[in-house]
Design goal:
The complex is a heterodimer of chains A (69) and B (267). Chain A is built from one helix and five strands; from the N terminus they run E-E-H-E-E-E. Chain A has 69 residues and is mainly β. Chain A has a single domain (2-62), classed as Roll (Ubiquitin-like (UB roll)), CATH 3.10.20.30. A five-stranded mixed beta sheet of chain A has the order 2-1-5-3-4, with no helix packed on it. The longest helix of chain A has 7 residues, at 18-24. The radius of gyration of chain A is 12 Å and the shape is globular. Chain B has helices at residues 2-6, 8-11, 17-25, 38-48, 81-92, 110-114, 127-140, 167-171, 183-186, 190-209; strands at residues 28-32, 52-56, 97-101, 119-122, 144-150, 153-159, 218-223, 228-233. Chain B has a single domain, classed as Rossmann fold (3-Layer(aba) Sandwich), CATH 3.40.50.720. Helix content of chain B is 33%, strand content 17%. In chain B, helix 4 packs parallel to helix 5 and helix 4 (38-48) packs parallel to helix 10. At the A-B interface, strand 3, strand 4 and strand 5 of A face strand 5, strand 6, helix 8 and strand 8 of B.
Chain lengths: 69, 267
Amino acid sequence: MQIIVNGKAVEAADGITVAQLLVEQKVQTPEYVSVELNGEILDRQDFATTVVAAGDQIEFLYFMGGGAR
Amino acid sequence: MEEIERYSRQIILKEVGGKGQEKLLASRVLIVGAGGLGSPASMYLAAAGVGTIGLIDGDIVDLTNLQRQIVHSTADIGTPKVQSAAEKLRAINPAVQVHTYEERVTAGNILDIIKDYDFVIDGTDNFPAKFLINDACYFAGKPFSHAGILRFDGQLFTVLPGRTACYRCLFGGPPPANAVPSCAQAGVLGGVAGVIGSLQATETLKYLLGVGELLTDRMLVFDALGMHFREVGFRRNRRCPLCGEKPTITELRDEEQPVCDWRGTQV
């Protein structure tokens, strides 16, 4: 099935969970990435049980510091 | 009149005009961090005639700052950043009142400082400060511009507390300190700070003038290597620990971990 990850179309296996997708997309430290599914921020504890459906839009939002020093 | 001539290129914009210029001259903006983001942000706001600019930063200028912190010069090395920046802003526009606070923001001082300002720019370099600014602006009802930069990337969004999504709606709380490499290790391209800091100044001017659409409930993500801007939309989070339905953060506190910046592998 096709889903949209950070604006790009990606092929993913049917029934894949958000947690599995983080691994598949090689997100190194998924415990510090926020995930938005179709416009809603997901609870971290739901990553493993939330199943992604065809056409879903997923955003990985990264912590980004920097600025002053 | 010199003042009209100075601002003529923006007064000519129908969204600004003489009335808008008067609004800017009567406005007060606090910039937290006189560094990579605070440099371009403060310089554009001073040039535009924002009447009062507050600068808060406890650091002194060092050689490694100069690659991106364009408000500081080689001769300023060893000088407090707020003093160095204030001199430049006054040189750009003597009509601007610059207030300096040579300290770091803490849960103990921030509310007393931001109460005097209309808008806050987060140009800090660490997560505890970013969450502290988010929380303080929520409790004080102050709009602010959040931003972060790292390597070739930057991101920003604007928060109208209680009305639009806040930093905690997206990220909850800071990442653990031991998960995070230092600023010095990660690096950042100077121009990226310039882009994002200039966008923060632009958002501030739009807010003060009351024109256009603010960057609220959406984050602008800049990728300099691909030279792309992306926009990620979101909504307020009902489970936000600060502004959600059952808040667990009900008073200001300092987050503990003193980190610089962190991110995962880019997708």
